[in-house]
Amino acid sequence: MPSLSGYDTNQESSQASIRKVTISRVGSKDVLDITEPGLTVAIQYSDGNAIYVGESSPGSVKGAEVWRIKKITYDGDGNATDVQWADGDTNFDNEWDEKAGYDYS
């Protein structure tokens, strides 16, 4: 996976204020494209894949209910197969720290 400026992709979770992130296809890996300007982005990786991606306004605390969070699932070959949103919506009303406890649809 290509590295992101300001990110250490080997860590469980990273956070930085960014304008745009594009990860080009590497082998069979899908593209992750985050383009909404001016948001803080937090990413949790597992086995080199982004599993959870959260977005919030800059300076947001990870324990505050101000995040929208998507969960990405992958097939056995590491290809993204589904993107689902916490609580089934794109509202900025979730806690990044509680991402694993939400229902996604």
Q: Tags for this entry?
A:
mainly beta, 0% helix, 105 residues, 7 strands, 37% strand, disordered N terminus, 5-stranded antiparallel β-sheet, two-stranded antiparallel ribbon, globular
Please outline the helices and strands:
Elements: E1 13-17, E2 21-23, E3 32-34, E4 40-46, E5 49-56, E6 68-74, E7 80-85
Antiparallel strand pairs: 1-4, 2-3, 4-5, 5-6, 6-7
Distance, first to last CA: 27 Å
How much strand?
35-45%
What is the general shape?
globular
Rounded mean pLDDT score: 77
Provide a count of the helices: 0
Kindly describe this structure.
It is built from no helices and 7 strands. It is globular, with a radius of gyration of 13 Å. A hairpin with a 5-residue loop joins strand 6 and strand 7 (80-85). The protein has strands spanning 13-17, 21-23, 32-34, 40-46, 49-56, 68-74, 80-85. The N and C termini lie far apart (27 Å). The strands form 2 sheets. A 5-stranded antiparallel beta sheet has the order 1-4-5-6-7, with no helix packed on it. Strands 2-3 form a two-stranded antiparallel sheet. It has one domain (13-91). It is mainly β. Helix content is 0%, strand content 37%.
